[in-house]
Amino acid sequence: MDTIDAIHHHRSIRRYRPDLVPDDLLTEILAAGVRASSSGNMQSYSIIVTRDRALREQLYVPHMEQDMVLDAPVLLTFCADFRRMRHWLRLSDAPDNFDNFMSFLIAAIDATLVSQTVALAAEARGLGICYMGSTLANCDQIGRLLRLPPGVMPVVGFSLGWPAEDPAPRDRLPLDGLVHHETYHDYSDERIHEIYRDRERQGWARYMSYPELRARIEGAGVANLAQVYTVIKYTRESHREYSATVLGYLREQGFLH
Q1: Under a CB-based contact definition with an 8 Å cutoff, are residues 5 and 169 in contact?
Q2: Residue 167 carries which DSSP code?
Q3: What ranges make up the beta strands (E) of 91-147?
Q4: C-alpha to C-alpha distance for 217 and 226, rounded to whole angstroms
Q5: How does pLDDT run across 14-25, given as a tens digit for each residue?
Q6: CA 28, CA 23: separation in Å to the nearest integer?
Q7: Distance in angstroms between the alpha carbons of the first and the last residue of the chain
């Protein structure tokens, strides 16, 4: 498949066949992934490959009990990692400047770039993936289960395996609503309605097609898609809680000095 075609064919896979991912194939996609851009070529990330069923069962709860954690044969966790770099600095009698929030951001960007490159390589070989926001939301629990030492922080992760479903690609906002030429151009009310018009229709229809979600939506008195996002999916209370978790674990892992 052509690279551009593969990108346009992306969809999140939540159901997997039980077939294992061969070692040589996994090595191939990881080797392709680490060719991703990296700040200063420091490659300030680490990739945790989790196949062990017992460990995946432990990760099931902090990953918000998503079935793909157990059904996919592989979980990949991409971590911001300055521990390795800082160890090398000590051995080289070089100053250590990487125990701060800016360093975490650099490493988090590196980890995210490599994760997406691995994802593209996997999909090019017929594998399926699904990113899990729980990796960051419950970074402290996941970090402890993966035995991450100070200087290492889970940022993004996804399930990986052979698809047992073929969902339709999800809609995307129109390109001209996302791209700004030369400088940022703020949005009028009318332009916002234009950009989100199709999303409101398609997204609402998608959520209402699931009986359990429909019951939650109707029970909460939610009237539109925007309210689904902030009344049901991403509440202020949950974001405050996750923010406290991330900041606390950043401090514990030595990124806020």
Answers
A1: no
A2: P
A3: 128-131
A4: 12
A5: 999 999 999 999
A6: 9
A7: 46
Taking the C-alpha atoms of residue 182 and residue 115, their distance in angstroms, rounded to an integer, is 29
By the 10 Å C-beta count (0-12 exposed, 13-18 middle, 19+ buried), 107 is classed as buried
CA–CA dist 42, 170 (Å, integer): 35
Q: Can you state the angle between helices 211-219 and 189-208, rounded to 10 degrees?
A: 130
Q: How far is CA 116 from the centre of its chain?
A: 9
Q: Name the amino acid, one letter, at 70.
A: L
Q: What region, left, alpha or beta, does residue 172 occupy, with left being phi > 0 and alpha being psi -120 to 50 degrees?
A: beta
* Cβ 76 vs Cβ 99: under 8 Å: no
pTM for the structure as a whole: 0.95
The partner residues of 16 in beta bridges, in order of sequence, read: 163
Domains delineated in the chain? 3-168 (3.40.109.10), 175-238 (no CATH)
**Rounded to the nearest 5 degrees, what angle is found at the Cα of 244, between the Cα atoms of 135 and 136?**
10
Share of the chain above pLDDT 90, in %: 97
Question: Is the Cβ–Cβ distance between 109 and 78 less than 8 Å?
Answer: no
pLDDT tens digits for range 33-61: 999 999 999 999 999 999 999 999 999 99
Q: Is 189 exposed, middle or buried (0-12, 13-18, 19+ CB in 10 A)?
A: exposed
Other CB atoms within 10 Å distance of the CB of residue 155: 22
CA atoms of 30 and 164, how far apart (whole Å)? 22
